[in-house]
């Protein structure tokens, strides 16, 4: 069915405006959450992959490193550096990043500078480098939510437990002695 020529531009304009309005309404329904959103549509918390990269360096580890140590000894204490550059052989970058669901993302960088002889000249350490206990507390998401499992019983709970059931000692008649089945020898006679 064809529309008369005088109504065709008006009908096309009306159809175009209805299509534009429908697309606008449908696009308002699509919601893509950002990474910082905790829940999608306020209902579901999506799983976020835990990303750990680099070496975990703490104040205790860095305190073991002394100026004048050779590269091999620094590598033994701190691990292999995340970044080394063949054009700048005197610099090692220890970068650590972690993104864990329920915890704040962390990023730290420790730079080791060596002299021409391969001995540690300086170690640039950030001021916010945590101790081991502080680091574990910062990535612990169980303690914050209160889901920490109980690991020990109190003395009253131990006394309330029923005594273990006594097992019957097996008698010699019930135990199988020797081979139950006999098999023919593997070699011929």
Describe the structure.
The structure is a single chain. The protein is an alpha+beta fold. The chain has a domain of 92 residues: Beta-lactamase Inhibitory Protein, Chain:B, domain 1, CATH 3.30.1450. 29% of the residues lie in helices and 15% in strands. The protein contains six helices and five strands. Strands 1, 2, 3, 4 and 5 form a five-stranded antiparallel β-sheet that branches. A hairpin with a 5-residue loop joins strand 4 and strand 5. It starts with 7 loop residues before the first helix and ends in a 29-residue tail after the last helix. The mean pLDDT is 79.
Which helices and strands, and how do they pair?
Elements: H1 8-29, E1 51-54, H2 59-64, H3 71-78, E2 83-84, E3 91-99, E4 106-114, E5 120-124, H4 132-139, H5 142-145, H6 155-160
Antiparallel strand pairs: 1-3, 2-3, 3-4, 4-5
Beta fraction: 15-25%
Give the end-to-end Cα distance, rounded to a whole number of Å. Answer: 100 Å
User: Which value, in Å, is the CA radius of gyration?
Assistant: 35 Å
Q: How many helices in DSSP terms?
A: 6
| Main sheet: strands, sense, barrel | 5 strands, antiparallel
CATH C-level category of the domain at 51-142: Alpha Beta
Number of strands: 5
Overall outline: extended
Classify the fold: give the CATH topology of the domain at 51-142: Beta-lactamase Inhibitory Protein, Chain:B, domain 1
What share of the residues lie within helices? 25-40%
In the predicted model, the low-confidence regions spanning at least 5 consecutive residues are none
**Judging by the overall fold, what is the CATH architecture of the domain at 51-142?**
2-Layer Sandwich
The H/E string reads HEHHEEEEHHH
Mean pLDDT: 79
| Class per helix and strand makeup | alpha+beta
């Amino acid at each position: 069915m064809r529309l008369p020529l005088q109504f065709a531009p008006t009908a096309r304009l009306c159809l175009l405006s209805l299509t534009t309005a429908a697309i606008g309404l449908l696009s308002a329904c699509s919601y893509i959450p950002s990474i910082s959103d905790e829940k999608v549509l306020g209902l579901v918390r999506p799983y976020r992959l835990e990303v750990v990269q680099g070496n975990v360096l703490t104040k205790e580890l860095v305190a073991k490193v002394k100026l004048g140590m050779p590269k091999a000894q620094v590598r033994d204490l701190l691990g292999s550096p995340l970044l080394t550059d063949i054009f700048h052989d005197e610099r090692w970058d220890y970068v650590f990043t972690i993104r864990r669901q329920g915890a704040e993302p962390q990023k730290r960088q420790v730079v080791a500078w060596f002299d021409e002889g391969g001995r540690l000249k300086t170690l640039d350490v950030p001021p916010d480098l945590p101790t081991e206990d502080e680091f574990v507390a910062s990535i612990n998401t169980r303690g914050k939510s209160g889901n920490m499992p109980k690991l020990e019983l109190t003395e009253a709970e131990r006394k309330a437990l029923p005594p273990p059931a006594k097992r019957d000692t097996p008698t010699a008649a019930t135990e199988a002695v020797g081979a139950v089945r006999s098999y023919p020898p593997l070699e011929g006679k």
